Automatic annotation (TrEMBL):
Function: Increases the formation of ribosomal termination complexes and stimulates activities of RF-1 and RF-2. It binds guanine nucleotides and has strong preference for UGA stop codons. It may interact directly with the ribosome. The stimulation of RF-1 and RF-2 is significantly reduced by GTP and GDP, but not by GMP.
Keyword Transferase: no
Organism of derivation: Oenococcus sicerae
Binding site for GTP: 18-25, 86-90, 140-143
InterPro entries the UniProt entry points to: EF-G-like_DII, EFG_III/V, G_TR_CS, P-loop_NTPase, PrfC, RF3_C, RF3_dom_3_sf, RF3_GTP-bd
Name assigned to this protein: Peptide chain release factor 3
Length: 504
């Protein structure tokens, strides 16, 4: 039997970060094809056979052609076990994405080579960059006319503030794409080897390559592992060109699972004997036939055994982990053991919240909290059918625990107020309430507000005005929802001693 201390080293747990439409789904599909998980492209997102669309609420994704949920895909390739954590590309779901990025050890950044760095790429890069994890760059859509390669690399370095190390170099693009030149192994990889090479395009690119070799950054594995340098690849996900080369280099350098910090600033290393893990996502009703709820858990240290007893750090509750699943491709599989780096799914009856830490044994372990967002848009929510209060409350509670939206109440507790970062979160919420909980809801728009938390002992009922609404968050902490900047400044002048926090 292999020891978990050897086994976890072959885990590669990562996410793809990109601006919508850059080709994340297409690249994921190619990786799955290479891993032998799927046999034909077009199976991941609402295209082709629809194999992945395993829950009915994904209908909203298909209607809008966006990816709303984060899912986990696991497969074996070249002696490695790969865990891909998918992240919703739409900016309204960035909160979900940011939390998912806390559970990966490296990231693949996909950039459209005609567009360069786009806003969402930059935002997501900043999040992973804070964790100093390795980022591998794939300039996609080389089969289309793209921007000059030097230009793209230069923009990447300047906009993201990271050193770039091209691993291969394009020879033409679009109609005149001849291939890529592998700078590490000095090898030409032809795009279409049956066509005669276009000498002028080739010569021009060879000059660039000489320049690049002379003046470009030296490959530095240590810098890569510390997130200071990003290896850069060119290719086309759709044409499956340069993907295999990318994958093989990526697997060579991508890091094994790393430590995670606790609230007491301890670093829990993966080879620590004690089993520890944290919940980064909760998703209800993944399968409409089962009405289940799954907590996605990233293992940090030790070995998971089916049936083991753990403690939930938040409330010291003891739980037996018997109903556990792993995410081999799109099949859910029951598992007996799992190791650091793995993502397991725990069937949840309401015990877990996002960010929860669990641990085996007596030594308390509580990991650093996951990042939270300050909502900017607010809506009052009301049940259309007053007779269906039970399903209404159940739906709200479950969807809030899943982290799809944030819940507030008016200070005296008669009204529910929902807070979100983007409008689409409300639409998904409404859709899911109707579809999964059979509860029709009505929104009363409150609009854009600036939320600031205050201390309970500083609260004064007179703070509740038409321009500053007093509310409480899900845990009962007082929050003021300000109409605008002006109202905020006015308040700060009036109550100079009250500390206003933008986060709880
Ligand atoms: P996303 O998940 O990052 O949002 O992007 P996705 O993979 O869905 O790709 C967005 C569009 O870009 C798709 O076209 C896809 O086919 C196309 N695409 C992805 N990679 C490449 C590439 O290497 N070359 C070219 N030429 N196109 C690429 P679509 O028309 O929006 O979707 P579809 O209806 O064709 O599937």
């Amino acid at each position: 039997m292999t020891n978990f201390k050897d086994e976890y080293k072959n885990r590669i747990t990562f996410a793809i970060i990109s601006h919508p439409d850059a080709g994340k789904t297409t690249l994921t599909e190619q990786l799955l094809l290479h891993g032998g998980v799927i046999r034909q492209a077009g199976t991941v997102k609402g295209r082709g056979s629809n194999k992945m669309a395993s829950s009915d609420w994904m209908a909203i994704e298909q209607q809008r052609g966006i990816s709303v949920t984060s899912s986990v895909l696991q497969f074996d390739y070249a002696g490695k076990r790969i865990n891909i954590l998918d992240t919703p590309g739409h900016e309204d779901f960035s909160e979900d994405t940011y939390r998912t990025l806390m559970a990966v050890d490296s990231a693949v950044m996909v950039i459209d080579s005609a567009k360069g760095i786009e806003p969402q790429t930059k935002k997501l890069f900043e999040i992973v960059s804070k964790r100093h994890i390795p980022v591998f760059t794939f300039f996609n859509k080389l089969d289309r006319d793209g921007r000059d390669a030097f230009d793209l690399v230069d923009e990447l370095e300047k906009t993201l503030g990271i050193q770039a190390c091209p691993m291969n170099w394009p020879i033409g693009s679009g109609q005149v794409l001849q291939g890529i030149y592998d700078l590490q192994h000095d090898k030409l990889i032809r795009y279409n080897s049956t066509k005669t090479i276009d000498q002028s395009v080739y010569d021009e690119s060879m000059e660039e390559i000489v320049l690049q070799k002379d003046a470009g950054n030296q490959f530095d594995e240590s810098k890569i592992l510390h997130g200071q340098q990003t290896p850069v690849f060119f290719g086309s996900a759709l044409a499956n060109f340069g993907v295999e080369e990318f994958l093989s280099e990526y697997l060579k350098y991508a890091p094994a699972p790393s430590y995670k910090r606790t609230v007491d600033h301890l670093e829990i290393q993966p080879d620590n004997e004690q089993f520890t893990a944290f919940v980064f996502k909760i998703q209800a009703n993944m399968n409409p036939n089962h009405r289940d709820r799954i907590a996605f858990v990233r293992i940090v240290s030790g070995e998971f055994h089916k049936g083991m007893e753990v403690t939930l750090a938040r409330n010291a509750k003891k739980l037996k982990l018997s109903n556990v699943t792993q995410f081999m491709a799109d099949e859910r599989e029951n598992i007996e053991t799992a190791v650091p780096g793995d993502i397991i799914g725990l069937y949840d009856t309401g015990n877990f919240q996002i960010g929860d830490s669990i641990y085996e044994g007596k030594q308390t372990v509580e990991f650093e909290p996951l990042p939270t967002f300050t909502p900017e848009l607010f809506n009052r929510v009301i049940a259309k059918d007053v007779m269906k209060q039970k399903s209404y409350h159940k739906g709200i509670n479950q969807l809030v625990q899943e982290g799809t939206i944030q819940l507030f109440e008016s200070w005296h507790g008669q009204e529910y107020i929902l807070g979100a970062v983007g409008q689409l979160q409300f639409e998904v919420f409404q859709f899911r309430m109707a579809n999964e909980y059979n509860s029709q809801i009505i929104f009363e728009t409150l609009g854009k507000k600036i939320a600031r938390w205050i201390r309970l002992d500083e609260l004064d009922e007179r703070m509740n005005t038409s321009r500053s609404m007093l509310a409480k968050d899900r845990l009962g902490n007082p929050v003021i929802l300000f109409e605008n900047r002006f109202a905020l400044t006015w308040f700060a002048d009036k109550y100079p001693n009250v500390k206003l926090e933008s986060k709880m």
